[in-house]
Amino acid sequence: MQHQSKQDETTYTINDLGDHQDLNLDNQNLSTLLDQIGRLADLKVLSVYKNQLTGVPEILWQLTDLEVLNLADNKFTALPEDLGNLTKLRMLDAGHNKITDLPSSLAKLVNLKFLYLSNNNLTSVEIAFEGLQALTYLNITDNQLSALPENIGSLTKLLEFRIYNNQLKSLPSSIGKLTMLRELHVMNNQLATLPETIGKMKNLKKLMLQSNQIEALPDSLCRLSNLNDLDLRFNSLTHFPESMGDLKSLRFLDLRANKLSSLPSSMANLSKLEKLDLRWNRLQRLPEWFSQLEERGCTIYT
Length: 302
Description:
By secondary structure, the chain is mainly β. It is about 5% helix and about 15% strand. The protein has helices at about 5-15, 290-295, and strands spanning about 20-25, 45, 70, 90-95, 115, 135-140, 160, 185, 205-210, 230, 250-255, 275, 300. About 30% of the residues are buried.
């Protein structure tokens, strides 16, 4: 009996699917997809993760019932404008490719909730974010972004935003409009400051700013009453706002490897603080109020 080739196996799989709604072709070393995929008119989930694809048949963009499309870890350099036909799409993963530009039609994906664009070659994300009103999760990590557009503030339902390992020098003031956001991950960029509007992100619980160039924090940051995890290690902070003690929900504060020589006494009011890490700073002496934190069970590293 002759063994079928990988391509033959794929043909058989597609022809045999009938009215199935889920097609998984992950990790099969495919360099092309067959046009027969267009026969699967009821397809809702398509995953071609970890292949060798540089494109897909045009007929794919006519599968308008698709809700989940995983194109991650291939060799795409671009996504076509026809992507905008897939208006029922809830999840799009195009991470770990070589994409340099995004199609403007991406803004037509009005039902999209999860968008993964990590580990590509993006230098900008100039799309009409106003159209992505359902988006709750956005990942653009490990690209070459030096700025974010002001219209990023249109993503008013966003809950988690990951944009670490880029070249961001600043965040737009519109980021303060992301009032539903719970997690903001901006590690390993080139931020020197934070916008004053960051204090409007009233639901923020986790703010990760490790390995930037931040020298000072805006006073407004102390209005983040729900913040419980603040990571500022490996920055250039020389002082803290006096109102740091207003962060009543803060549980973890990492300040390692900054240039702090003193701390505001209001920090004694951080009643929920569980861990304070101050190693590799310039504190000449430890504040007396440290004992108050330790009595409440806070671990302090100096």
